[in-house]
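Supplementary Methods, section 5.1.

A reviewer requested that the exact input to the structure prediction be made available. We therefore reproduce it here, unchanged from the version used in the analyses.
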Amino acid sequence: MPKPWKKKQRENDDASAPRTLHTERIVDELDLHGLTGDEAERRLELFLDRIAASDPGGVVRVITGRGAGSAAGPVIQPLVREALTGWLRDRVADWAVDVGGGAYLVRVKG
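The structure derived from this sequence is encoded cell-by-cell as follows.
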C-alpha cells in the first residue's frame, strides 16, 4: 500500500522538479559595495526598473557583500532584503540569497 505522505515522482516530469533561481541564467548584475544606504536604494530601484523594461522576468544578481568589512556590521545586505520584501516588492517576482550569502538573486516582474 502506498504511503499517503509520499508523493509519487513521475519520470521526466519537469513540472514536478523544484524551481530555483540558483539555476537560472543571470541577465545582469548590480554591485552595491561601498555605497551609502541612500545611494544603494536609488541604484537598486533604477536597476530593477531598467531590467523590468529591457528583460521582464529576467534574473539579476544584486551584490551586497556580507558586511564583514563594516565595523558596525552589515548595512547594505539588510537594506536590500528590506527593499525586496517591502517598498520594492511590486517590482520583484521572486528572490533568494545567492550562494555564499553576499548577494541576492532577483527575478524582476515584467
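Residues 6-18 have pLDDT under 50 and may be disordered. These observations are discussed further in the main text.
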